[in-house]
Design goal:
Strand content of chain A: 5-15%
Largest sheet of chain A: 5 strands, mixed
CATH superfamily of one domain in chain A: ATP synthase, F1 complex, gamma subunit
CATH architecture of one domain in chain A: 3-Layer(aba) Sandwich
CATH superfamily of the largest domain in chain B: F0F1 ATP synthase delta/epsilon subunit, N-terminal
CATH class of one domain in chain A: Alpha Beta
Strand order of the largest sheet of chain B: 2-1-7-6-5-3-4
Oligomer: heterodimer
Distance between the termini of chain B: 28 Å
Helix content of chain A: 55-70%
Distance between the termini of chain A: 28 Å
Largest interface: A-B, 39 and 30 residues
Shape of chain A: elongated
Helix content of chain B: 25-40%
CATH architecture of the largest domain in chain B: Sandwich
Number of helices of chain B: 2
Radius of gyration of chain A: 27 Å
Number of strands of chain B: 7
Strand content of chain B: over 45%
Number of helices of chain A: 6
Structural class of chain B: alpha+beta
Structural class of chain A: alpha/beta
Strand order of the largest sheet of chain A: 3-2-1-4-5
């Protein structure tokens, strides 16, 4: 009986694990929906800013702004890394950590004491601490639902730092949302701003994943299926409406130039905010996919154990019958 | 006429209005129906939206306004309903803003902005307190 019982115990423990991963998948799906809604809501603002910039460009406004200008000497560089506070999301954190670790080494070589490391997310800074690197700033408050106010505070600090010459360059490492089935870790320079803001900065959160060219691996397809299932369950809200417009004779208050100058810091803030939103959405997607895979794996193991258990049980019964028959024969 | 207020977080307001008064960077502007297309820079101050006999007041903090096709769109960092602003806390925000450093030109601008924002908030709070 010993073997069958041990198998049964294992099967039960895996069933429990499956329950947990399944629940986590559902939770991640719900949070993904929330994160997505925020991202979609925010992209409406970004879109309007972009259309405003286009209108202004039509009116012939050019921009000069301290945030667009490179400092004569680059001595201080800040690196901001966006990771998650929690694990269980596949390769999401690992990707961020691997990428930022490499970049941080480069920055240290280049700037020495002038390099500043800032990490958002427990997973990120504990990984750095484990390797004996103490980040200068850590944030845990952003989670997967960053509020604009909180990000704005950070943005204001960066802008002030840039003006004051405390930061000459701001780099960010985060996971960029390309489409539902594709998220890539990226490294970008936020300050000085190399370009203002354009359609590129508006993420199309609701486009179909199949619109991308190129071959897809099996994993990709699987991921898409998971996401599509989640989407159909939640029925995502529609895309923000884009204004169709030719050339409109706007009146500018006070002038096109002045409005343009004001847009620069706003563009920086919204870009930073978008990084956080992307990171939040991607964390949940990663978790959803990882947990889905874990649940499926548990299913597989359970069915394997089922078979092993039944065999063991049958074997045992056969043995017992043989023993009874053997006993009966010996008596007779 | 429609009035839409958008912050980076969400669309705060999307209502029909008969008249909108909003703070531009150099003074208040009133916009009625069928206004000519404008793009303007918002200042810090009170946004009043009149629809029928009902008037709603908000505090808006910098950003932009676009009037086009009878739609007034405000893009602002934050829009707070006037009734949510507390006189004491707005006073505190002002004190904090006044204590900010102003070592160079850019920092001075930043300080001026936060002081202006705090003053505008306090003004709205005072106005409400008087009513």
């Amino acid at each position: 009986m010993a073997k069958a019982r041990a198998l049964d115990r294992r099967r039960r423990s895996i069933r429990n694990t499956r329950k947990i991963t399944r629940t986590m998948e559902l939770v991640a799906t719900a949070q993904f929906k929330r994160a997505m809604d925020r991202a979609v809501a925010a992209s409406s603002y970004t879109q309007r800013i972009v259309s405003l910039v286009n209108d202004l460009a039509h009116a012939g406004a050019s921009v000069t702004h301290p945030l667009l200008e490179e400092h004569a000497e680059t001595k201080n560089a800040a690196l901001l890394v966006l990771t998650a506070n929690r694990g269980m999301c596949g390769g999401y954190n690992t990707n961020m950590i691997r990428m930022s670790m490499a970049r941080w080494k480069e920055l240290q070589k280049e700037f020495g004491e002038g390099a500043v490391l800032e990490i958002s997310g427990k997973r990120g800074f504990s990984a750095f601490r484990f390797r004996g690197i103490e980040p200068h700033q850590t944030y845990t408050q952003f989670e997967d639902k960053p509020a604009y106010e909180e990000v704005d505070e950070l943005a204001t600090r960066y802008i002030e730092g840039y003006y004051a010459g405390k930061i000459d360059r701001l780099e960010i490492i985060y996971t960029r949302f390309v489409s539902m089935s594709k998220q890539v870790p990226v490294h970008e320079i936020l300050l000085p701003m190399t370009r203002l803001i354009s359609d590129e900065d508006v993420t199309d959160f609701v486009s179909k994943p199949s619109s991308e060219g190129g071959k897809k691996t099996e994993a990709d397809l699987k991921k898409e299926a998971v996401i599509r299932a989640a989407q159909s369950r939640l029925s995502l809200s529609g895309k923000a409406n884009i204004r169709e417009g030719g050339e409109i004779p706007f009146d500018f208050y006070p002038s096109a130039q002045s409005v343009m100058e004001e847009i620069v810091p706003s563009a920086f803030r919204i870009k930073l905010f978008k990084c956080f939103l992307d990171a939040g959405v991607n964390e949940q997607i990663a978790r959803m996919v990882a947990m889905k895979a874990a649940t499926e794996n548990a299913d597989q193991i359970i069915s394997m154990l089922n078979m092993a258990y039944n065999r063991a049980r049958q074997g045992q019964i056969t043995n017992e019958i043989l023993e009874v028959i053997g006993g009966a024969n010996a008596l007779g | 006429m429609k009035c839409i207020v958008v912050t980076p977080d969400k669309t705060v307001l999307d209502v029909e209005a008969s008249f909108v008064a909003l703070p531009l960077v150099d003074g208040e502007i009133g916009i009625g129906p069928k206004h000519t297309p404008i793009i303007g820079r918002l200042g810090y101050g009170e946004l009043r939206i009149k629809s029928g006999s009902d008037t709603k007041a908000y505090y808006v903090e910098s950003g932009f306004v676009e009037v086009l096709n009878d739609v007034v769109t405000l893009l602002t960092d934050s829009a707070i309903e006037a009734s949510d602003i507390d006189l004491d806390s707005s006073q505190q925000v002002l004190t904090e803003a006044l204590a900010k450093p102003a070592h160079n030109e850019a920092l001075t601008t930043l300080k001026e902005q936060s002081v202006a924002a705090a003053r505008a908030q306090r003004r709205i709070a005072q106005k409400r307190a008087l009513q």
